[in-house]
Amino acid sequence: MSLYDIIFNIDFWQNVYLxxxxxxxxxxxxxxxxxxxxLYKISSFxxxxxxxxxxxxxxxxxxxxxxxxxxxxxxxxxxxxxISKSESESEKEWKFAVIEAxxxxxxxxxxSGYLGETMMERLKTVLPENLPSLNQLxxxxxxxxxxxxxxxxxxxxxxxxxxxxxxxxxxxxxKVL
Length: 177
Description:
mainly alpha
């Protein structure tokens, strides 16, 4: 028999098919058994690794308290930076001073316990009895939003000083300046 006869012989290819079919069946059974064995081993390992009690113990421990410096110390320091920016002759510095002043008031409101995700939400929770200059603060915050969201917004030095006086008054009413 020649190589040509073997290659084009149908009986040869039927035997190859039959042998390879049985090889793949045995191999599939072996691999399926291996997967089942691994899953069994993993499940016993997970039972030994019971993290429930450890998590309950962890949850009992109080979280470490952050040591935050007093708000008055932060406010005093930041307010001096804001004042120095407002004394500049650059509109960019004035805008930055207003944004920093707004951020400082927001920090004080957060630390004072007013709730909300944003300063606007916190301002909605402030009672006018607790902050007499609340309406002026809303006005100053709106100007801050104009600065932050409108690049074409023009801020004069006179307006910047007026807005910063509002923020200073608010910080004084909150007893941090």
